[in-house]
């Protein structure tokens, strides 16, 4: 599970390099993600979350995807 957590972190950092990221694993491929970045300034919640989901979309595709669901996604500015 820690490999998947690190893959999530790396994918988000690739798209949002200055992000402070906390990834917590639940069971069965479920995760909670918190991302803090100035890139979210001026964006509404949906726009901010789309940035994060776009970064990890490849980890959620297919039947054998390591990320089954994101139970909670929080995006904030510093």
**Tally of distinct domains:** 1
How would you describe the shape? globular
Q: Give the structural class.
A: alpha+beta
Q: Which spans have pLDDT < 50 for at least 5 consecutive residues? A: none
Q: Count the strands?
A: 3
Largest sheet, strands/sense/barrel: 3 strands, mixed
Mean pLDDT: 96
From the 3D structure, determine the CATH topology: GMP Synthetase, Chain A, domain 3
Percent helix among the residues?
A: 25-40%
Q: Number of helix segments?
A: 2
Helix and strand succession? HEEHE
CATH superfamily: BolA-like
Top-tier CATH class: Alpha Beta
Describe the strand arrangement of the main beta sheet, using strand numbers: 1-2-3
Gyration radius, to the nearest Å? 12 Å
From the 3D coordinates, which CATH architecture would you assign?
A: 2-Layer Sandwich
Report the sheet-strand fraction: 25-35%
Instruction: Report, as a whole number of angstroms, the end-to-end distance.
Output: 28 Å
